[in-house]
Structure formats: C-alpha cells, structure tokens
Amino acid sequence: MRIKKDMKLADVIQLNYMLIPVIHRFGINLGFGDKTVADVCRENEVDINFFLQLVNAYHDKDYFPKEELQTIPVKNIVNYLKMTHSSYLNDKLSEIEQKIISLQSEDTEDQKYILLIRNFFEGYKSELTEHIMHEENVVFPYVLAVEEIIKNQNFTERNREIFESFSIEKYEEGHNDVEEKLMDLKTIMIKYLTPPANSTLYHTIIQDLFKLEEDLNYHSRIEDKVLTPKVILMEKSICNLI
Amino acid sequence: MARSTILIADNSCMIRKGLRSILQNLENSEVIQLIDNKEDVCGIVHKRKPDILIINPDMLPGDCLDAKREFFNENKLSLILLSNKKNLKNDLKADGYINYMDGQNTILDMMQEILNKNNKSSFPDKNSETISSREKNILKHIALGLTNKEIADQLFISIHTVVTHRKNITQKLGIKSVSGLTVYAILHNLISMDEVK
C-alpha cells in the first residue's frame, strides 16, 4: 500500500513498525495522536515530498520514484543518510556489542566461544564503520559537489578536482561486501554454536542482528534507488556541460 | 541446498508481479528482482548472476540476442521465454517457455523441471552437506590466513582447485567471509584459537 500525505501517521506506523526509527531520524517523536503525515511534517519542518518518497521506498521494495526523485535536493538525502549512519554507529552497534559483552560476563564454560563471537562482531563493526566513513568522507562530498556544479552551471577549481577524482560507479561496486559478515555471524550463531546458559539473551542478540540487517537493507535501498540514480543523471548532464 | 535465484523481465507490471506471486509456490527458489526496462537487462543479469532468467523476447537487448548463447553460457543461466505468442518455440531457442495463457500448474511444473535439472548438474551429491576431509584441510589453511596461491603451493594443487574447494565449502556451510570460516574452524577444532593471527 502506498503511503500518502493525508494518512494518519499512527496508521502508517501500524502498517510497518520498521518505520519508527526512520521517522525518529527526521526528528519526529511518537505520541502524535490522530495527526496526518502532512500535519506532522509541517510541525517538524520536514519536507513532505522527501518524507513520502523515503517512507515509501522503505516500505515497498518495488517502489521506485522515478520522476519525483529529481525534485529532491541531494543535500536533504545526504543529511538523512548521515543521521542514519550516526544511529548505527552510536546506538545500534553498541547496543548489540553490550549484549555480547554481558553474555561474556555470565559465569559459563562457553567463555571461549563467546569471545569468538565478540571478536567476530568487532571485526564486522570496524568494517561497517570504515564503509560509513568512506561514504561520509568521499562519496557524500562528491555528490554535494556534483549538485553544486549543476546549480551554478559552473566549476569552481575545488569542485572540478572533486568531480574528476571520483564517480558514482565506483561507489556502486563496493556496496555488497559488508553484508556478508553480518550474514555469517547469524549463520554461525544459529547453526554451529550451542547457546550458553543465558539462552534468552543469546536469542535476543540473534533477533537484533536480523533487525539490523533489515534496517541496513532499507538504508542501502535509499542509497541505491534514490541517491545513485539521481547522481548518475547529474553526472551525465555535467559531461554535457563540459 | 542453495536457493536458485530468478529474474523476471517483462514490460507489464501485472505480468511481472503476477508471475512472481505464482513462483512463490516453488521451493528452494527466490525471485530476486523484477526488471521493467529493456536497457537494464544486461547490466542486472551481469550484476546479480541469477540461475534463471524469465524474459519477454521483446525485452532481449538487440546485441544480446545476436550473442545470445555466449551471453547466457557465460552467466550459466537457464533462459525461459515469456510471451503471448504461440509459435515462440520455433523462433527462439530457450530452456523453457511460458505462455500468458498457461495455467498455474503448467508453469510450476515446467519451473520445477528446470530447477531439478539445474540442481542435479551443480550438486552431484546434494545429500552430503558435511565437508569432506580434503575440504577440511583446505578450510584449515584458509582459517590460518593463507591466500589461495599459498594454499595451492603448500598442497601441490592448482589455484583453480583451491577456488573450487572454497566455493564448495562456502556452499555447504553457508559461511562466506574468511573470518566466519575461521570461527567455524575453531569451533570444530580444526585449528586452535592461538594459531589465528
């Protein structure tokens, strides 16, 4: 079902609870009563068009807002993605890490195996962090420069340098590797490890990993379906400019 | 057993989504993407490397049609044509055909046949999910952090053989990354924790 501006935001969340962290990243808090999507966006000074496209892209994996996506400034998309990144780095990853650590502090004979899991998770965490830093330090400045060039129909020296140093194609290439480790961790915990005494906590960790994976998939869908096609279009028109 | 991946390319969204919902009845397979644009076909096929491509002949890119065999052999995929034309079989060669008028059972039977055929060729012993002692040995070396070349040199086998073993190990265990394989090796006492760098 397509989410529209005159729907009640509460109904939208009932439809898909995975949208809770998404609206939170826009600065929207729960407790909005019967207000519609449009009302809540206006109150929180959120661009309604962008909001709708984003939640719809999250909600329906076949949604591909071809025409609409050209109207959204890249800056808004990048700002949103940055907020998502910081929620991964500051909240989600450390929450799971904390759970693994408390699993470790339980008095069990399986200590050694928990240590393996912990090390593995640390490895995943640093890989994801590196990936995110690459986006923030290389990809985002690049797309912002591209947008500026289009806006001014002109190159500053610095923008030209950035434009020539990178292309969105390179970004598309390295996008799948990070998910691999997360999937492996789930597989190992499900197939090959006997849960320690505190199996409830162990189960929670697995469920958290599934949710993290789902959220990351949503996230990369925004990058792949909204940001990347837009930048490809802009790159083409810049090449015409030259 | 690994799931077979399927791409559907047709310019009608009713056909794409309708077919996908029919194919949900198949076991061990998954429709990974729907394609609505002729120009995207080549790129997506190369990127996603599906096991099966179900495509309306109108969506076949001209340059792919000429080099059709080469294009599909290289990607090792089964080609199924999807159309409302009756005499399609005579015009174009493919592994299977779906006509818009076919009933659900006809489609599912045909798909199942292709899935069975594919699985037979790529998994000769699909009952044995456990890894062989040869593979255990390779796994041990991977877990110790050796590269394919180093493993090949140490065991006096070709790199190609190492790569094939690695592929089988990953398929059987469901673990792709080196660090994941290392954890498996430690859990199964192939190496000790101290040996890992």
UniProtKB/TrEMBL annotation, chain A:
Domain Hemerythrin-like: 105-230
GO (cellular component) term, any one: cytoplasm
Lineage start: Bacteria, Pseudomonadati, Bacteroidota, Bacteroidia, Marinilabiliales
Pfam entry (one): Hemerythrin
Localization annotation: Cytoplasm
Chief localization: cytoplasm
Name of the featured protein: Hemerythrin-like domain-containing protein
UniProtKB keywords: Cytoplasm, Iron, Metal-binding
Xref: InterPro entries: Hemerythrin-like, RIC_family
Organism encoding this protein: Labilibaculum manganireducens
Top-rank taxon: Bacteria
Gene3D superfamilies named in the record: nmb1532 protein domain like
First and last residue of the signal peptide: none
Keyword Lipid metabolism: no
Record has Metal-binding as a keyword: yes
From TrEMBL, chain B:
Domain Response regulatory: residue ranges: 5-115
Pfam families recorded: GerE
GO BP term, pick one: regulation of DNA-templated transcription
UniProt keyword Transcription regulation, yes or no: yes
One Gene Ontology MF term: DNA binding
Start and end residues of each HTH luxR-type domain: 124-189
Key words of the record: DNA-binding, Transcription, Transcription regulation
Coiled-coil ranges per UniProt: none
PANTHER family: DNA-BINDING TRANSCRIPTIONAL ACTIVATOR DEVR_DOSR
Protein name from the UniProt record: Response regulator
Gene source species: Labilibaculum euxinus
